[in-house]
Specification:
The complex is a heterodimer of chains A (242) and B (405). With 242 residues, chain A is α/β, with parallel strands linked by helices. Chain A has helices at residues 2-12, 60-67, 90-100, 116-121, 131-144, 160-172, 190-205, 217-221, and strands at 17-28, 34-45, 49-53, 75-80, 83-84, 101-104, 178-182, 210-214, 225-230, 233-239. Chain A has one domain (2-239): P-loop containing nucleotide triphosphate hydrolases (Rossmann fold, 3-Layer(aba) Sandwich). Classes of the chains: A alpha/beta (242), B alpha+beta (405).
Chain lengths: 242, 405
């Protein structure tokens, strides 16, 4: 119900692009050169929940890295929240990631030496500001993913699902323009994976823009838009349900 | 510090405050305590060695320097041996002449009586001399040498005329005389002498310890002393020692200045000081090598740490850390390691110095340079050791770092 409300809301106002890829080529040097992305153009609007689906080796991880400014394209334009990233310095790109983007990884990448609270608060670390304020925002995000009772625990005391929830809270804490999740259910059993997907759908319903990269058709089926990629090119881009 | 493009409205740049840098930089140490302690150990040992060596040598030198200050103005005048190896004697006027040199404060002459020895009793075979020679001197000797009396008194103008003798510390031990509670006599040249005093060991002039002292008047009467002293001890104003030394030979023996030999008993202290310096120089070198090895150890551990924590580096880059922040994190970690190691080493070195000084009854003296210099050296080494690993961490591309695991 909330889902349809959000969709209809975004339909009435003109969609605001959060991320635009225009004719992006990513080529790795070698003999012969490996073309990971060939002329990819993609636009993600505010409030979208998009699945990028493809078999392994299709270039979807490279696509995520280019979208996340972790890697520069060989050619083409990457625009995030209206800003052209091609001329940005490393520090400027880092600032962009700190303020605009949130990442969720298949392997969670939590720091064992820190509590759940500080792991989540570190999502805001590179924005600067007071640690008390960061912890306050982190607490809200932890509450949102339903881990309130685990705030003081260490990552190695958590289940896989709880670890991924912590990682999602970290990506979410700063209310980024776009959250990118790379195989978020890849290391989880089906039931836990489903609960993570449910969480992502809830976050989407609250207005978070989310891109999920996956090779799992079930995950892709849970999103409202599905982008298929094969051999570095987008082969289809369609709404999952109409 | 960080350039912020005008187009970023509410979004700021990538920032890391100094306090956060310290938190992030110490994270690796806090989560791997044993490794951190072991890798800081090398630096600790190096700094402890340097601080300890400097502290201990300074503390023991201070004892020597005190002694040197007390005895540095003591001058010995003796007849030089001639080219044919024959001993000459000093002129009879020596003491009077020397005492007229302005800065000279004390003069005492001694005259060794040839072929006369001290025996516990007349029944001891004359061949058992124990090496105790008889020396004529006057009442001023203890004051000039800075010697103190263990038992009884020294000679005075009255006892100098009588068969009274004062024994050096070793002479008394050899004769088996430890106290003077009962009147004690010894035999010198067929005659009985009453022991009126026993000296404590004399610093620097240890030959005094195996001597027996009698007065000049009785030496003249009984042993044919001819008035020529065999040695002269002087004290001069400390600042004038060199000036006094320069004029001494010509003053004591105007006719033949080259027959006079002037020496400083305190030279042995100076030699000891130099020896200590050489010894501590060697240990300092070893400490510096330990420090260097400690630095290499930290660099090594940091390189491994960077390799192990690739995914953390990738994560931090994804969270918005710039290359500079990643470099700063690992550099901070290396610096913290070496500074903590340096601080621990300074404390260990300081404790060793205190322990040494307490057992040797010397004052604790640690050069300030050793304390500050130790920490400064540790910091410098940490910076150098952290430079390569941190640039390596910063150069790592985010995607490459995330691809691992």
């Amino acid at each position: 119900m909330t889902l349809t409300a959000a969709v209809s809301a975004s339909a009435t106002v003109a969609p605001v692009p959060v991320l635009e890829l225009i004719d992006v080529v990513k080529q790795y040097s070698g003999d012969p050169p490996v073309v990971a992305l060939a002329d990819v153009s993609l636009r993600i609007d505010q409030g979208d929940l998009v699945a990028i689906v493809g078999p392994s080796g299709s270039g979807k991880t490279t696509l995520l890295h280019v979208m996340g400014t972790l890697e520069r394209p060989t050619r083409g334009l990457v625009r995030i929240a209206g800003e052209d990233t091609s001329e940005m310095t490393d520090t400027q790109l880092s600032g962009l990631r700190a303020w605009r983007l949130g990442f969720v990884f298949q392997q969670f990448f939590l720091l064992d030496g820190l509590s759940v609270l500080d792991n989540v608060a570190d999502g805001l670390l590179y924005r600067g500001g007071q640690i008390a304020e960061r912890r306050r925002l982190a607490e809200a995000a932890i509450e949102r993913v339903g881990l309130r009772h685990r705030v003081a625990h260490r990552p190695n005391q958590l289940s896989g699902g709880e670890q991924q929830r912590t990682a999602i809270a970290r990506a979410l804490a700063g209310r980024p323009a776009l959250v990118m999740a790379d195989e978020p259910t890849g290391n989880l059993d089906t039931a836990t994976g489903d609960s993570i997907l449910e969480l992502l759908r809830e976050l989407h319903a609250d207005g978070t823009t989310i891109v999920v990269i996956t090779h799992d058709p079930d995950v892709a089926a849970a999103t409202e838009r599905r982008v298929e990629i094969r051999d570095g090119s987008i082969t289809s881009d369609s709404p999952t349900r109409v | 510090m960080i350039h912020r493009p005008a187009s970023e409205d509410e979004a700021g740049g990538s920032r890391l405050s100094r306090r956060d840098l310290l938190r992030v930089g110490s994270l690796g140490l806090r989560s791997r305590r044993t490794r951190a302690a072991l890798s800081a150990l090398g630096i600790s040992i190096g700094i402890a060695a340097i601080v300890g060596v400097l502290g201990i040598s300074q503390s023991s030198k201070s004892g020597l320097l005190n002694e040197l200050g007390r005895l540095g103005n003591l001058i010995t005048v003796q007849p030089a041996t001639t080219a044919s190896g024959q001993a000459t004697e000093l002129p009879t006027t020596s003491e009077g002449m020397a005492s007229r040199i302005g800065p000279v404060t004390n003069v005492t002459e001694i005259a060794t009586i040839q072929n006369t020895y001290v025996y516990r009793s007349p029944f001891v075979p004359s061949i058992d001399t124990n090496g105790i020679s008889v020396t004529a001197t006057d009442a001023a000797l203890p004051a000039t040498l800075g010697a103190s009396i263990a038992h009884g008194t020294f000679l005075n103008p009255a006892t100098s005329h009588f068969p009274a003798v004062v024994l050096g510390a070793e002479a008394a031990t050899l004769l088996g005389i430890t106290t003077l509670t009962h009147p004690t006599q010894v035999s010198i040249g067929e005659r009985s002498f009453t022991v009126v005093g026993i000296l404590n060991p004399v610093q620097l002039i240890s030959q005094m310890d195996s001597m027996a002292f009698i007065g000049f008047p009785i030496a003249e009467r009984d042993f044919g002393f001819d008035g020529h002293p065999t040695g002269l001890y002087l004290r001069s104003a400390p600042s004038q020692v060199n000036a006094v030394t320069a004029v001494l030979p010509a003053t004591v023996s105007p006719a033949d200045p080259s027959s006079i030999s002037v020496t400083f008993p305190s030279d042995i202290l100076k030699a000891e000081l130099v020896t200590k310096g050489a010894y501590s120089g060697l240990l300092l070198g070893l400490g510096a090598i330990a420090l260097l090895v400690g630095g290499v150890g930290i660099a090594n551990v940091m390189v491994i740490s960077v390799l192990e924590r690739r995914s953390e580096i990738g994560l931090r880059r994804a969270l918005g850390a710039s290359r500079r922040h990643v470099a700063a994190q690992f550099l901070t970690e290396a610096l913290l390691l070496s500074i903590l190691g340096g601080a621990a080493g300074t404390i260990i070195g300081w404790a060793a110095t205190v322990a040494y000084a307490l057992t040797q009854h010397e004052t604790v003296q640690i050069p300030a340079l050793a304390l500050y210099g130790g920490i400064a050296a540790a910091t410098l080494i940490g910076a150098i050791a952290g430079l390569y690993p941190s640039t390596r961490a910063a150069r790592l591309s985010p995607t490459e770092a995330l691809r691992t695991v």
